[in-house]
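Exercise 7. Given the components listed, write out the predicted structure of the assembled complex. Treat all entries as one system.
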Amino acid sequence: MKKRVWMNLVMAILVAGLFLTVSCAKKTIVSDATTIEDQEKIKAEANAKAEAEAERIAQQNLEDQMANENAFKETKAMAAKNRFENQDIHFEYDSSDLSSMAKMVLKEKAAWLKTNYVSVTIEGHCDDRGTTEYNLALGERRASTAKSYLINLGVAASRLDTISYGEEQPIDQSTTESAYRENRRAHFTIN
Amino acid sequence: MNKRYCFHAMFNKIILSAIVCFLGLSWVLFLSIPVYARDYDYINISNPFLNKTPIAVTEFKAFNGHATEVAAGKKAIDFLRQALDFTGYLKTMNPVAFLSNPAESGIQLGQINFRDWTGIGAELLVTGGIEEVNGKVKLKLRLFDTFNTKLLVGKVYTGPRSQIRKMIHLFCSEISYKLTGKWGVFNSKIAFVSTVKGKKEIFICDFDGKNIKQITFHKSICLSPAWSFDSKWLAYVSYARGNPQIFIKNLKEKRGSIVNYKGMNISPDWMPGQLKLVAALSFSGDQEIYLLTLKGEIIKRVTKNWGIDVSPKFSPDGKKIVFTSKRAGTPQIYIKDIESARVKRITFKGSNNTSPAWSPDGKKIAYVGIEKNNINIFVMNIDSGMPVQLTMNAGDNEDPAWSPDGSMMTFTSTREGGVPRIFVMNASGSDPRRLLRLKGKQTQPDWSMSKSTEN
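Answer.
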C-alpha cells in the first residue's frame, strides 16, 4: 500500500512537472506577442519615413522650381547682358551723329548699366570708304559721341572707355550698301 | 639710212637750238629767281607730258673674260636695265637694233661711233666694263649724250660681287642727277603695311619692290609707316598695347620710343631735316595735331579746332603742314603755317577729300577724293587750286606718297581682283604698275627720301 502512495506522489510530481512545462510553453507565446508589437512599430516608422520622403520630394520640387526660376532669371539677365554687348548702334556715312534709333538703344544700355555695375569699352568702327587714318578719327568720334550720350543719361564717365578701330575690323567684308551700313557702328564690350 | 640720218641731224639741230634757248632762258631766270633757275639739265620730270627718252645699254666689256666675270656682267646689265626702266622718263632700247658693240670696239669716249647710236634713235648711251678677281668686282660705267657726243657721267665702282646691284643703283643715281637735277629713287626704300595671317604688320622693300623685309611682329594691327628724312627711323601706329600708339623705331640700332597718350595716337609724319614728328593725338578729348620730339614729348599743339584733324604731312621746308579736317562739315584738305598758325583750305570740289601728301618740290598736293563710292587719287597745284584726277575706273585708289625726286607716286589700289596692292605710277598718273608680289593685302606705302649717292 505504501508503495502505491509513493507511485501517486511520483505521478503527482510528474504531472506537476508536466504542468510546469506547459506553463513554460505558454510563456513563449507571450514573447511572440511582443514581436508583433515591434512590427507595428516598424510599420509606423516606415510610414513616417515615407511621409518624410514625400515631404523631402516636395521640398526638392520646390527647390528645383526655385532653381529653375533663378536659372530663368539668370538666363533673362544673361540675355539682357548679351543684348547689351551685341546690339550695336549704327551711323550714317561719314557721320558720328546719333540717329533716333541709336538714342533708343543707348537709353536701354544706360538703364542696364544702372543695375549692372560694370565698366565698358565703346568701340567705334567705319565702313571702308574713306582713308585709313580719317576712318580712325571718325571711328573715335562715333565712340565718343555714344559715350557723351551715356554720360548725359547718368552713367559715370569713369565707367566708359573708348577705342577706334576705323575700318580695320569690318563685320561684313563685302562692298555692298548693306555691308557698309552694318560696319558703320559703335560696339559695346564689358571690361 | 641716209634720210633717217638727215632727220636725226635736223632733230639734233632742233635739240641744240632748244638747249641754247633754254640756257638763255635759264640765264634770265637765274637773274630773277635764282633758286629755280636750273632744276634740271636734260629732263624735266615735273612735265606732265613727258615722253620717255630712249637709252641704249650696251653689253659690258669683260676685261679678263672668264666665265664668272661674264656672268657678273650680265647680271649687272639686268640690274641696270630694270632700274632705268623703273623711272618714268627713260626707256631702255632693244639690243637687237644696235649697230655696233662697244664691248668689242671700246667703251671710252674716243672709241664710240655716235652715229651708230643717233642713227637708231638712242639719245643716251651707257657703256660698261667689268673686272672680276676672286669675288671682287670693279665696274667702269659711262653715260654718253649721243647727239652731243659728250660724256655725261663716268664712274668706277669697286666692291664684293654681292654688291653689284648696289653699285648699279649708285650709278643710276648719278645718271638721274645729271639728267634731272635730282638724285632719283635708286637709293630709296618703301615702307608699307601687309597682312600676315590676317594681322597687319610693317614691311620695307627697295624702291623697286625688291628685298622685302618684315619689320614688326606685333600680331596686332600696325598702320601708317613713316620714314624719317635720313631713312634711319620709322614711325608707325600699333594696337599691340591696346589703344593705337605711335612706335618710333631706329631700324639699325634697335632703339626707339612709344607715343602713348590716352586715347588715340595716330598718323605720324617726320619733319624734313630734323628728328621731329607731327601726329594726331586725342588725349584732350578731341583730335588735334601736335609737334613732337623723337621721344614723343609735345613741342607744340598745331591745330585748335573741334572735330576731326588728322593725317598731317610736312611741306618740304618743314614750315607748314597739310592735313585733313572736318571743320567745315565735310573732310577737306587744309594747309597750316606752323609758326604763324595761318590756315588755308585748298580743296573745294567734292565732299570727301583726305590723305594729303606734299610733293618734294613743294608745289603740289596729292590727295584722295571720294565721289559716289569711287575712291581716286588727285593732285592739285597749290597756286592754281585746280585738281587733276590721276586714277580712274581702276578699283579704289588710296594712300598717295611721292617718290623722293617727285617723278613718281606709290599708292594702294584694288584694281587687281579687288584686293589692295601697292602700285607705282608717274607723277602725271601715267604708267601705273604693281610694285611687288606678296601674300595678303598691302596698303599705306611711304617712300623714303634719298638725298645723295652716299651709302
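Discussion: The longest helix of chain B spans residues 2-32. The interface with chain A takes residues 200, 221, 223-224, 242-244, 263-264, 266-267, 280, 282, 285, 287, 307-311, 324, 330-331, 351-352, 354-355, 368, 370, 373, 375, 398-399, 418, 443-444 of chain B (CB under 8 Å).
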